[in-house]
Amino acid sequence: QVQLVESGGGSAQSGGSLRLSCAAYGNTYISYCMGWFRQAPGKKREGVAWGDSAGITSLADSVKGRFTVSRDNAKNTLYLQMNGLKLEDTAMYYCAAGPLNCDVYYTGASALTYWGQGTQVTVSS
Fold this sequence. Notes:
The chain is 4% helix and 51% strand. The chain has one helix and eleven strands, in the order βββββββββαββ. The chain has one helix at 102-106, and strands spanning 2-7, 10-13, 18-26, 33-39, 46-52, 57-59, 67-72, 77-82, 91-98, 114-115, 119-124. The protein starts with a strand and ends with a strand.
């Protein structure tokens, strides 16, 4: 099993920055893939960024050029650096993890097994 602890959420001005962190505790084999998702009120959950232990990362098209995802395997932590924040980035952000390569998750072939509690990101003008 693995526990996911999210941090870094908060409020920011449009154009500002926030950094989200997701730390995995427990069997790190289960968290080979870690990802960030978000869900705004009235909208479906959206995958934002992914990173696996092999160093392969990916970003959703909606955040490319603004967000950066990185993973520190020594700390079992996935980071999401969010720059150039927009109002549309406002959402609850969730961290998730699973034992397979991330591509099987973001393609929808499999569901991520573990989820964090979520951290709120609010962007204002």
